[in-house]
Specification:
This protein is mainly alpha-helical and about 60 residues long. It has helices at about 5-15, 20-25, 30-40, 45-55. The protein has one domain (about 1-55). α1 packs antiparallel against α2 (about 20-25) and α2 (about 20-25) packs across α3. The relative contact order is 0.17.
Amino acid sequence: MATNGLSSALTLYGARTLTLSQAAAQAGLSEAEFIDQLERRGIEVTESERAAALGREQPARAD
């Protein structure tokens, strides 16, 4: 795994410059693996992206 690619992907996702999918691709990881890396570093993952990446349906929201 290229740590430089992972590092920049983490930074860009944290700044919300890249989506989870884009950042995971840049890092050369699956979305689930990238989420694990984000969580290890305390970088917040949006619930909508987590649900999409892990194949879970989001609960309906009454906004």
